[in-house]
Design brief:
- The protein is α+β, with helices and mostly antiparallel strands.
- It folds into 2 domains: 78 residues, Glutaredoxin, CATH 3.40.30; 127 residues, Glutathione S-transferase Yfyf (Class Pi), Chain A, domain 2, CATH 1.20.1050.
- It is built from 9 helices and 4 strands; from the N terminus they run E-H-E-H-E-E-H-H-H-H-H-H-H.
- Strands 2-1-3-4 form a 4-stranded mixed beta sheet, with helices on one face.
- Helix 1 links the parallel strand 1 and strand 2.
- Helix 1 packs parallel to helix 3.
- The chain is globular and about 50 Å long.
C-alpha cells in the first residue's frame, strides 16, 4: 500500500495518474493547501520542502518519496512499467520528463501567477512567461508531429507533460494553435487511468469557471 499526499494541482495529478495507470493500490491523504497543511511538522517529515505531492511506500518500510518527478521514477522502477529498461529508451523518457520539470512546469507556473494571483498586473512578466510557455508547447507540437508519444511508447513522460497542458487555458494559451499537441492531449484525456487519477483530487468548479472566463484568482 502507498500513501499519497496530494491536492488538485498539475504535479499532484502526476502522482495520482501514475498510480492509476500502474494499477498500484494507494490511499489518498488529501492536503489542504489553503490551510498550509503542507507546512505542518508532520508533513515536513515526509517532504522537507513542504510541497505536494509526496508518497510513503508502506511496503518498503514506510519509505517517503517527494518531488513529483522522483515519485514517477520511483514508481516506474518499482513496477518495471512506463519506462524502458534499455539505456537509450530510459534516457529518452527522462529527457522529456526533465523538459517538463525544468521548462513547462516552471514557465507555465509563472504565467499562472502573473495572470491570476500577482498583487498587481505586470504586462512584461505576463508576456514573457506566456511567450516562453507557447514556445515550449511548440517544441512538444513538433515532437508529436511524427511521434504518437513523446518518448516512443506511452510513458511517464507523457503523464508529466499532460497534467500541465491540461491547464493551458489558465495560462491563456489556445491548444487549437498546436494541432499535434491537441491530438495527443485528447487521446490521453480519454484514458481511464487519467480520468480516475484526476478524479481523486478534482479541480473546484469555481476555479474551472475562472479558467475559462479569464478571471483572476486571489491568493488564499
Amino acid at each position: 500500500m502507498i500513501d499519497l499526499y496530494s491536492a488538485s494541482t498539475p504535479n499532484g495529478w502526476k502522482a495520482s495518474i501514475m498510480l492509476e495507470e500502474l494499477g498500484l493500490p494507494y490511499e489518498l491523504k488529501r492536503v489542504d493547501l489553503g490551510k498550509a497543511e503542507q507546512k505542518t511538522p508532520e508533513f515536513l517529515k515526509i517532504n522537507p520542502n513542504g510541497r505536494i505531492p509526496a508518497i510513503v511506500d508502506r511496503d518498503a518500510g514506510d519509505f517517503p518519496v517527494f518531488e513529483s518527478g522522483a515519485i514517477m521514477l520511483y514508481l516506474a522502477e518499482k513496477t518495471g512499467k512506463l519506462i524502458p529498461s534499455d539505456a537509450k529508451g530510459r534516457s529518452l523518457v527522462i529527457q522529456w520528463l526533465m523538459f517538463q520539470m525544468g521548462g513547462v512546469g516552471p514557465m507555465q507556473g509563472q504565467a499562472h501567477v502573473f495572470l491570476h494571483s500577482a498583487p498587481e498586473t505586470i504586462p512584461y512578466a505576463i508576456e514573457r512567461y506566456q511567450n516562453e510557455t507557447r514556445r515550449l508547447y511548440g517544441v512538444l507540437d513538433t515532437r508529436l508531429a511524427d511521434n504518437a508519444y513523446l518518448a516512443g511508447d506511452f510513458s511517464l513522460a507523457d503523464i508529466a507533460n499532460w497534467t500541465w497542458i491540461w491547464f493551458h487555458g489558465f495560462a491563456g494559451i489556445a491548444l487549437e494553435d498546436f494541432p499535434n499537441l491537441k491530438r495527443w492531449f485528447d487521446e490521453l484525456e480519454a484514458r481511464p487511468g487519467f480520468q480516475r487519477g484526476m478524479a481523486v483530487t478534482p479541480v473546484a468548479p469555481e476555479v474551472v469557471a475562472r479558467m475559462t472566463s479569464g478571471g483572476r484568482l486571489q491568493r488564499p
